[in-house]
Amino acid sequence: MIDVIIVGGGPTGLMLAGELRLHGLRVLVLERDAEPSPVVRALGLHARSVEVMDQRGLLGRFLTHGRQYPLGGFFAGISKPAPEQLDTAHPYVLGIPQPITDRLLAEHATEVGAELARGHELVDAEQDETGVTAELADGTRLRSRYLVGCDGGRSTVRKLLGVGFPGEPASTETLLGEMEVTEDAATVTATVAEVRETQPRFGLGPFENGVYRVVVPAAGISQDRTVPPTLEEFKQRLRTFAGTDFGVHSPRWLSRFGDATRLAEHYRVGRVLLAGDAAHVHPPTGGQGLNLGIQDAFNLGWKLAAEINGWAPEGLLDSYQTERRPVAADVLDNTRAQMELLSTAPGPRAVRRLVSELMGFEEVNRHLIEKIIATGIRYDFGEGDQLLGRRLRDVGLGRGRLYELMHHGRGLLLDQTGLLSVQGWQNRVDHVVDVSEEMDVPAVLLRPDGHVAWAGDDQGELLEQLPKWFGAAGG
Question: To pair with 256 at 20 to 30 A between CA atoms, which of 307, 333, 378, 459?
Answer without folding.
Answer: 333
